[in-house]
Amino acid sequence: MNIWALWAKTHRREPKVTHSLLCHMIDVAEVTRALWDGALTEGMRIWMAERMCLAPDQARQTIAFWIGLHDLGKASPAFQRRYAPAMEELKSAGLSFPRVNVHEPCYHGLISAAVLEELLQSEMAMASLLAKRIARAIGGHHGAWPTPLDIQELKRDAIGRDDWHRCRRELMLALSAVLGPAKVETLGSTEREQNALLMVLSGLTSTADWLGSMEEFFPYQTQVPDIHDYAHRIAERARLALQDLNWLGWRPPREEVSFQELFLLTPRTMQQAIVDLAPRLTKPGLVIIEAPTGTGKTEAALYLADYWARVCQQRGLYVAMPTMATSNQMYSRVQAILKRRHADLAIDLLLVHSQARWMDDHQAHHLQTTEDHPGDRVGDMTWFLARKRCLLAPLGVGTVDQALLSVLQTRHFFVRLFGLSHKTVIFDEIHAYDTYMSTIFQRLLRWLQAVGCSVVLLSATLPAQTRRELLEAYAGPGRVKDLRTPYPAVTWAMGEQIGVIPLPASESRTLTLEWIDREPDALAARLADELREGGCAAVICNTVRRAQEVYLALKSASITSDSDLILFHAQFPLAWRAAIEETVLNCFGKDGKRPYKAIVVATQVIEQSLDLDFDLLVTDLAPVDLVIQRAGRVHRHDRPRRPPPPSNPRVLLCKPAEGIEGPDFGPDIFVYEHYVLLRSWLALSQLAQMTLPAETASLIEAVYGEAPLPTQGLDKALARAKDKMRKHQDTEVFNAMQKMIASPESEDLLSHPNVALEEDNPGLHEAFQALTRLGPPSIPVVCLHRTDTGLRLEPDGEGPEISLDDHPTPELTKQLALHAVSVNHHEAWKHLVAAPVPRGWREHPLLRDHRAVVFINGLCALPGTPYTLRLSRELGLEIRKEV
């Protein structure tokens, strides 16, 4: 049998040109070896080899061999009949092509899983169960592991008879001759260890296949005279491909550096506690740092990441921020520190920011594969966008959502876990998760521990029950007993050990609390009086609509100049929002050039992760932990002079309206749980001041714990709200469980069906979406403007002219992405989701789920609805109902 007649893919521009199946298998195997040598660190290589009971070099060859077999299912009549010229040649060589229903799908990855199971047993002397698991892990390289039912329903005529079996055996033996795999009898001593290795193996397989399918690095070959010579040449191509794609270059440090050398700072008390703890953390572990804002938690976490990278030879770092908005400043901080630590490395290429929406250095590369599902190639290309590549790159800054998707039933979820494995993952502001998100987060912690990750959790405030749940998620259920954690403290877990390090309380400060009228005009009048002698104030609103209303009231009151009244929320196009954020940081950051008098009206975008300092804070009532978080923006830094009256730290709380049964929180109950708002109001309403951090823990437990509060006659309202909250929580846990992958301890992990939740398509029902947090459905839109000179990015006609029918260039793609905003207003969402994606965007990996919204003089009517979109640099996006 001439196995060179078997093809793997056809050229996208020249359909008569094919690439040999054996050559493609060697391509991907050599990419795997190049990844092993240059992208996997020593710690990860040893971790994998030990579970296989092999030396690292043996594990390298064996894993490359397994992954090279990923497309063995293409040696089947179901696949080979898809290219007629090859089919005729194969027929003449004696291979049979039974008549089949051409409309009946038969996926080559599924065939790979079926035939590999048998061949690994017969040719590699592998035990049946082990062969089945490896075959399914490899066969799932297009995004989902084949289930037993999938394999059972395969038709023999699709797989092929004995002639095809002999053909596949010949391919396997040819690849074996190139790679020399070892005999493998185990993947770990426990179910958990085996599942972790299979998860990493699956992710590595998909990654190697994508990279090995880039035609500019791996030219098409129909036959080669010597496969050993071909493998040698392709090995060098694979190395050059990884180098060109910035997959090489990261090396974990081997030399120890002090905290002072790393940050050019003397460690504070909490940071010194981390420095003292580090030598005890000889293996990957979990560290929870609970301390007030402004105490240097980020530097402490980055110190641990550097320590673990050196001691455990880890693969790098991923910093997971609560929102995209908070990731910008963090990226700059991480970049500066890494450049100082690794002066010999090209950190700008190795550190990927998820909000760098499209990477210039990847635009010329084309992923050419022959896919079973329409649109799979475009979907696979999204892994070369920054928002996903930040997980695969050695160093990344992104959002918690990208990490959470690792444990949801999405296509290629295992690629995410592979990308995170053996890194230190830092999660900032973890207190802000709802029940649904917390359930997913706990499953993520379990998997991160299984795949060799160290984890650092940062929080200014954390309820005791939440802390216990997070510890048990990482360390294992039932492991946390009688753990008393004061505040502030560092809690840690490693292997069988769990400990708490109490921290000396930082110097407490007392903030005066006052309740004020929440109506915008009354709020403006109060601020006019407060800032009569100057000062900088922040007003934090719970919704964008309210922030816009408060801003307009303040503008009418003429308290400051127009340039010193700033509106900051998430409903500005990204380019405009970035400019606002830069202005806010330049004015109100630690070393900012502060105006004489200024007001920032914002939503939760300034609540966390931004180092901002105001003389006075006005805030809507929120859950008490978030009120404490917001209060950290008042008098954050020492300043020689603050104007009176805001010379003393004060928080003005907007009093909720009076309802029939207590306070009426209005639309805020759609943002925060009603019961939590009620308890927060009860906890704060009797206070004239709060002393932080001395009272932080008691305030948190007063709201989230079970201790009784003075109810002020609201017993029935509290009971109803609590019952409703518990029902919400039960529903949220159920919904999360339906969408998550199985735990690492699952005995049939690879047999669980994957419902292939959609990450990006906003038109699907939420039951089919990979939601990482609950909320109204949203859709990303690109804001364009009809001007006298055509369709433009800016209302003044600046920027290139836009054609919605043309596939955008890389540079234009970046500009379009920077003018996107997310719309979650229900009626507007319904209208926009029904609109077609522009023709030029439909096959674009970044823009394929975006809609174009065209504004004329700042207005865009939504036909068939009473709503109009309004967009201005002053207010951002407004959704107004026309009367």
List keywords for this structure.
single chain; 32 helices; Rossmann fold; seven-stranded mixed β-sheet; eight-stranded mixed β-sheet; 4 domains; about 40% helix; alpha/beta; Hypothetical protein af1432; about 900 residues
Layout of helices and strands:
Blueprint: E1 7-10, E2 18-20, H1 21-38, H2 42-52, H3 56-68, H4 77-80, H5 84-92, H6 108-124, H7 128-139, H8 148-152, H9 156-159, H10 162-179, H11 191-212, H12 227-244, H13 259-263, H14 269-277, E3 286-290, H15 297-311, E4 316-321, H16 324-341, H17 347-350, E5 351-353, H18 376-381, H19 386-392, E6 395-399, H20 400-404, H21 413-420, E7 423-427, H22 435-450, E8 454-459, H23 464-475, E9 489-494, E10 497-502, E11 509-517, H24 520-530, E12 535-540, H25 544-557, E13 565-568, H26 574-588, E14 597-602, E15 616-620, H27 624-631, E16 650-655, E17 657-659, E18 662-664, H28 674-685, E19 689-692, H29 696-704, H30 715-739, E20 779-787, E21 790-792, H31 810-817, E22 820-823, H32 826-834, E23 851-855, E24 859-861, E25 867-872, E26 876-881
Parallel strand pairs: 3-8, 4-6, 4-7, 5-6, 7-8, 11-16, 12-14, 12-15, 13-14, 15-16, 20-23
Antiparallel strand pairs: 1-2, 3-9, 9-10, 11-19, 17-18, 20-21, 20-22, 24-25, 25-26
Helix pairs in contact: 1-3, 1-10, 1-11, 1-12, 2-3, 6-7, 7-11, 11-21, 14-15, 22-23, 22-30, 24-25, 28-29, 28-30
